[in-house]
Amino acid sequence: MERRQAVIDLGSNSFRLVVFSWVEDRWWKRTDEIYEAVRIGEGLEETGALQPEPMERALRTLEVYAHFCASTGIEDLRAVATSAIRDASNQAEFLERARERSGLSVEVLATEAEARYGYLAAVNTTTLADGVALDLGGGSMQLTLCAGREARQMRSWPLGAVRMTERFLPDKRASKKQVKALRTHVRGELERDAPWIVDAGRGGRLAAIGGTVRNLAAAVQFAAELPSPGVQGFELERAGLDALVEDLAERSTAERRKVPGIKPERGDLILAGGLVVQAVMELGGFEALEVTEAGLREGVFLETLLATAEPPLFDDVREAAVRNLAGQYDADEPHVEHVAALALQMFDALAEGGAHPGDPEERDLLWAAALLHDIGVAVDYDDHHKHSRYLILNAGLPGYSQRETALIGQMARYHRKGSPGLGVYAALARRGDEARVWRCSAILRLAEQLERSRDRSVRAAKMVVVDGRVDLRLEAGGEDAPLARWAAERQGELFERAFDRTLHVHAG
Hints:
Number of strands: 14
Structural class: alpha/beta
Strand content: 15-25%
CATH class of the largest domain: Mainly Alpha
Largest sheet: 6 strands, mixed
């Protein structure tokens, strides 16, 4: 049975309502979202209280959110407030008025709870195991020290983009003196309260959530002219961030709003946010940070989804992401699992025979492509290989880098027809990726043809590399599997181009 939960994140800069839908042990996804740049923290740094105009904007937005939930029949609802509302001297007044106007009971998160939800979002959607999770909002910043994916230290600072802008960069064009003052302040706070960040940066990773981080990543992507449907899995390198921050510091607020990748409503905040992130990377010695589309609301939801685990973490982020996407599009599970098993069996045999290096990362990408190769059928059978690639790239695969996601998409794209290649994703590739796509596409296409009848009649595909050829012997339970043999033989040309060896198919 499909369930739904709405999470309302009342941040210092923006309010966001996200609807999550899920089927137990099958899949989960965001199915609706409403965003409003409320800027409730406006003026809080100077006065210590929520100001009348921002408060009224917030209350009107909550009325809309409450009406949306009522009209769409969503009963499972959590509204959580963070830094601005938590720190406001008139917090009680706002909560009471919110209850009166919208009927919503808002839960004000303690700093530890806010940090925990940010940590859950980051560790469940990135490759972070050892290192630091960063959550930058409008009012505060949280850092969580991670070891073996578990939280070891959590700390929150009032270093959010709204606060830092109002305190240090109030002018339409920032001066060098103001920028230096902000940098000095942030570094001093971190050196005093988080000396462990230096050790965490030695071999550890940095992963980050928050709208400011996503905008910074998008701006760097645009500047580098990289192909991408989003920022999930993007590696924001320190050099790229440094160049962007330097550029933003030279621009006025109005000019920053026009930078590709920066939302206009964040134009006045983005420089301060970039300087805060830059300080974290510099102090920790991190050369890159991994960006995720997830936010605090995913952390809140995942606590419900993974309620039986403590802490609520996926056992394997990459496997969970692949199976989740396959489940969303109702993939034929027995079929794709068997295609994956045959593909990996052939991959391993070819590696053992010296036909390719046998890279474990490449094997994992092949497995993911095998499980997802048919999800495009949910759009239409015709050209479903192209639809599969589109869905993979646009949904994103948490735990995989953008390069890896692009390779998986290309492998799925060529599981049926066409001449494999990297296409526009060559800009994300490393040396050898073109050959990887050729090899894995050839294996995946062969595995798909062996399972053409979708009855698992070919139980095993044994390969032996002999000189300039590869012998493929099919185990089919005493049958000669004529359809599978015929279909496999048709892939001989592609196989030879991928492995520089002829393919000989034997059945029985």
